[in-house]
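Amino acid chain:
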Amino acid sequence: MSEEGKNLGLIDAIASPEELVETSCNLALDIAENRKPRLYSLSRTDKLESSKTEEILQGFRQQAEVTALTSLKKLPVLMSFKNSDIPNPTYFRL
């Protein structure tokens, strides 16, 4: 579904959970510095049937919800690693 949305111009980037924060920050910087207009995605949705658009966007919302919940659950663990004396916490699997 992500690839379909990207091909339709409805989303700007696809990121794995590991790349999500970096990708989000890069997109936010692009928006803040006016490097990439974000209205293109909005104009693309006007060209699709409303039921198809709603179906695609609902799928994206559900994916984003799952990703956000997973990331929020991991955040305290990541912060504890950051503030700990563990020399290399990357061997822990989250």
